[in-house]
Design a protein that fits this description.
The protein is 30% helix and 17% strand.
Length: 243
């Protein structure tokens, strides 16, 4: 426990009494101390044990099991399979996609090595965030890294892109998150401000509604000034009009 009372303050108080005109019998003096713990505001931080259990039991996390140092590109390739069935120019069947995600039949290794060759990375070494930037440019995607060692905060977020892939980093190892709403235990997830929420009408995007409008040019985003609000059917973000 902490308090504002120190030994020096107590001695100073005794000295002030002894040097005053008051008559004090030290032997009969009783000191009463009241310790007040001042609360500190801030975001609560979960324990490491809770974080381990929290991430381990997540069905929305695809575990990357590798014997090399290429867990990062493997996780990105797996995440890409949730966005498209065409990987590095190869159209995959449903069976091949399942094998890719679960690391079966060597298909995950083959695509990972092909990606590294296209990036001219020929040594078996752990990927850095600079390497992730190169992958984003090559695949025209955006990667976001959720770091368990930093209390599940997003450590890295690439250049804004409609195709977003989320990685889970723990102890320098990368896994794939294929559903951020499930990971955050929320109904919806705003990919612009990285916030989970349960009510569409109450979520206000911290980065502004017009940013998503500019990114998504689908027909259902045609502006209708007669409405105050409309929803993005792709990401469930409320687009506020007439503001």
């Amino acid at each position: 426990m902490t308090s504002n009372v120190s030994g020096r303050k107590i001695l100073n108080k005794i000295c002030s009494i002894l040097t005053s005109d008051q008559s004090v019998n030290i032997d009969e003096t009783v000191f009463n101390f009241q310790v007040v713990i001042i609360p500190k505001g801030g975001k609560p931080k979960p324990s490491w044990e809770y974080l381990d259990l929290f991430t381990k039991n997540k069905k929305c996390v695809i575990q990357i099991n590798n014997e090399d140092e290429l867990c990062c590109p493997r996780a990105i390739i797996v995440g890409l399979s949730y966005k498209t069935d065409v990987i590095l120019g190869h159209k995959l069947t449903d069976s091949q996609i399942k094998d890719l995600r679960h690391g079966r039949n060597n298909i995950q290794t083959r695509f990972t090595k092909e990606l590294c060759q296209k990036l001219e990375i020929y040594d078996n070494r752990p990927f850095t965030y600079r390497d992730i930037e190169n992958i984003e440019t090559f695949l025209n995607i955006q990667v976001k890294v959720v770091n368990v060692d930093n209390f599940c905060e997003i450590d890295y977020s690439g250049k804004e892109n409609r195709i977003k892939i989320y990685l889970l980093k723990k102890n320098e190892h990368f896994n794939t998150i294929y559903s951020m709403s499930s990971f955050m235990e929320r109904v919806y997830y705003c990919e612009l401000c990285d916030t989970g929420y349960n009510n569409k009408t109450k979520h206000v995007c911290k980065k502004g509604p017009w940013l998503k409008w500019n990114l998504c040019n689908e027909d259902y985003h045609i502006q209708d000034l007669r409405k105050e609000k409309q929803f993005c059917q792709e990401c469930d973000i409320v687009l506020i009009l007439n503001v």
